[in-house]
Nucleoside-diphosphate kinase (Sandaracinomonas limnophila), 142 residues
Amino acid sequence: MPTNRTFTMIKPDAVADGHSGAIIQQIESAGYKIVAIKKVLLTKEQAGQFYAIHKERPFFESLCNYMTSNVIIPMVLEKGNAVQDFRTFIGSTNPELAEAGTIRKQFAKSMEANAIHGSDSDENAEIEGKFFFSEKELEQRL
Ligand SMILES: Nc1ncnc2c1ncn2[C@@H]1O[C@H](COP(=O)(O)OP(=O)(O)OP(=O)(O)O)[C@@H](O)[C@H]1O
């Protein structure tokens, strides 16, 4: 059964460029409630763990370097049909292909530095949320 939560993180480029406030405002305006939020500087090891599924890909090392280049802002969000709707809301991984008005169309710089992450399934949303937040932090009722 689909849950109503997804996991996102504002990536280092968007934080460094001062876009985190605008992105959070758009997320809230689109109807997502913020269940949990923090600011984190990942270690290389943590970035490698988070993106372990990509470890054989040619961009893996560069991705881990990028993800540790500045702080990120991980969040757990709540809304009906959260996972699928949020993927549409942020737009394509490649910003050149992202629809007008999406977060990536507005703020992404490249395929790698693409401003924001969104979980691709309910199962991954739960795993990724627990990567950054304790059970207690995720208990919040909105
Ligand atoms: N070909 C590539 N070159 C460089 N970086 C890439 C490439 N493909 C993916 N990435 C980076 O790895 C991340 C994870 O890739 P994935 O295919 O899971 O994309 P996604 O599901 O759209 O992104 P995310 O999981 O961050 O929401 C991308 O968001 C991007 O930062």
Summary: The helical segments are 12-16, 20-29, 44-50, 60-67, 82-90, 103-107, 122-132. The longest strand covers residues 5-10. The mean pLDDT is 96.
